[in-house]
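Hi support team,

I submitted a single chain yesterday and got back a structure, but I'm not sure I'm reading the token output correctly. Could someone confirm the output below corresponds to the sequence I sent? I've pasted both exactly as they appear in my results page.

Thanks,
R.
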Amino acid sequence: MAAYDFIIAGAGAAGLSLAYHLNSAGLHDKRILLLDRAPKTVNDRTWCFWEAGQSPYEKAVFRQWGRVWFHGEGVSRRLELSPYRYKMIRGLDFYQHMQRWLARQPNIDIKYGEIERLEDTPEGVTAWQNGQPHRARWAFSSLYKPQPRQPQYHYLLQHFKGWVVRTPQPAFDPSAATFMDFRVEQHGDVRFAYVLPFDERTALVEYTLFSGELLGQADYDAGLRDYLSQFCGVREFEILEAEFGVIPMTDAPHGLVQSPHVLNIGIAGGRAKASTGYAFKRIQAQSRRIVESLLHTGQPVYREPAFDRHAWMDSIYLEALASKRVGGREFFGGLFRKNPPARVLRFLDEETGPLEDLRIMLSVDIPRFTAAALEVGRSRLFTRAGTPRPDRFAS
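Hi R., thanks for writing in. Yes, this is the structure output for that exact sequence:
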């Protein structure tokens, strides 16, 4: 068996990002093995995020906008995002960019085949792929496995379908993306649309839901067609590409440590933000924390805060949604109606301090969110006391 310092199981956003951050931090003397089922050769997803300045993957950024449209309850306006820009990376562009980077890294190998299991050993970990063992000191896994549900937590899904459409005549404004459009019928869920224009005739249009259950594919298609017709004035179009995705939105703990020598990364490590589903920047932040821990302690396990107030606010928001105390149209409408866009984006990135958090909290229906906060606290206390609580969020 060839011995490696690190094995990374899964060569998607999380695995490739961790490999990039390890080498960018100067750990070129460490041997790294990336494992994945097969080479990634199709545009299977899109990542969007906002940031001020340059991304480590700036060459893979397909489009970016300094302005976005937002349509919610009581607000419909074009927002100036300065100092942020809203950026879009297509999956295939990212994979190809990283493949070119990997080809220049002599300390990183990549092997393809079915990843069967990761076995902890006294000396480290053994990864089995197509019946072959690979040994390393540490392993990082982005292989997502749903955990058993616990009634004190919330389990929703962000699910979406997107089409890249081409229209016969100009129909889109390439200078501004549509960040969230809540004008679509909600049907008791949280539903909104994105429009990411490439040029005047081409755009990625996504129909997105926060709910407990998926729709049939025909329902997503109908939502996309209705949105294009009603709000974009588009009735004739060609579908160039289609994508579909499901992201867990849960406040249940995702343990960083899977076993003594295996760490969870990416969505498997809880990097999808519970209240929005955004993950790409949070994946970069986790990669940096792992690298910082390795540089300072020689081990990748970093310390989690004893209390994370942003995670607590996410739980309150999920409770408010799941209990129908508040809708997404109302919640996000209040945020963008009563706050500068940059403050909202800092809040969603968990970069605000207590004073800004207070200003954000004053933007929402305080009695309803107070009731949601009390319910979250009650459910956690009851569960710790051993009192069963019905799982109202399991659908």
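A quick pointer for reading it: Residues 366-384 form the longest helix (19 residues). Let us know if anything else looks off.

Best,
Support desk
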